What does this fold into?
Amino acid sequence: MLNIAICDDDEYSIKYLSEIISQYDQQSNLQIKITTFVSGVLLLKNFSRYDLIFLDIDMPEMNGLEVGLNIKEKNNSCEIIYVTNYSDYAYQSFSIRPFGYVVKPFSMENIFKELNDFISKRNEKNEIHQIYLSDGKVTLNLNVEDIVYLEYSTNKYVKVVAENETYDMHVPLKYFYERTKAHGFTYPHKSFIVNMLHIEKIECFDIVMKNNTIIPIAQKKKVWFMEEYNVFLQQRFGG
It folds into this structure.
């Protein structure tokens, strides 16, 4: 089952896009459920757990960029494909990191391509990467994407901060880096390793994580860190 929402103030666009997605569903047999909204306000008021949202940018009351920010706060795993009359909106929505763009008037070929790309990425993400960490006393088996950051503390313990729990382990920080660097982790400071997937934004020499934790960037590592982060963004999000 795939839950897709369409949000557009143009009812003709909603009808046409719904028909294309239904045809895609018939060919792929994915059992797609389509929910439609004629405004971003209604979408947010009746928000459910959608896998993908086709979101018009140019809407009254609240435009698609504002709606997108609200959606990511409610469910960061929900992917957004913007539907727009203008290609230059791409630069304004970098902070939202949409899955893609469809410029009106769109075609079946355009929509099928976006859906194919989304399904491929979804299948890749479903291949959960587990990581095993042990200090001889404590052994952890964690989903890599659940780890937010690791911090070396003054009592010679490393604090492993996951999305829902925190663990203390008595091992060098470099031990973790060797085991996590292939999974999108970076070492911006001698006391911290961060999961780049959980970075919200960079402010000068600070990394603001999605859980609002601020991680410092060592001055001598700033250029190296930004290069590594840009490579991560290109590989992960295609931009």
About this structure: The first strand starts at residue 2 and ends at 7.
